[in-house]
Structure prediction request, 211 residues.
Amino acid sequence: METLLLSAECEKNFNTAILKSAETIDNGGLVAFPTETFYGLGANINNANALKKIFEVKGRADNAPILLLIGDMHMVEYYVSHIPESARRIMNAFWPGGVTLVFNASDAVNPVLSAGTGKIGIRYSSHPVPSAISKKLGYAITGTSANISGKAPPDSAEKALEQLGGKIELIIDGGLTRGVTPSTVIDVSNDNLAVIREGCISSEAIFKAVL
Prediction:
């Protein structure tokens, strides 16, 4: 397979990249794209073969959950069974941004994505590329990092190509991402918020937003 590399660093290229990305994902292909932290790997969450391909390409254990990236705040309601008030406060304070919230999943979520936990991580990225792709499609896309499991997540299209070239259909070059730290992951599935991973936004700031 030849991996296509498209730039999204000017308005004309951006629009072309979004259209091609949406088309590729909708047809079951995989697309790597920049986020506010590292490059992510997007797939059609409604396509079982595409989800299977993610695990194969990354060499990822099938008991590892995969987060979703959304293009609109209101998309959350479709993928979760309930949005606690604490979660709404965090969403209003930090979305779009580098906070992934873990909810109880709705029946609309493929169990492969939740790894059988009944929970699903969701982020509304502040980077325009994944948000625009999801919005164009009208549904969430996967947001797992665009790397081989066990290797460093890439902060550039070139590094994503080094790891996934020849294995996925498309890489969108949005320049160097911030990298360094991933998103902060907070479990909001019950009344007691739990920090799963400290990341680019401090848990202290997040808990302050809930008060």
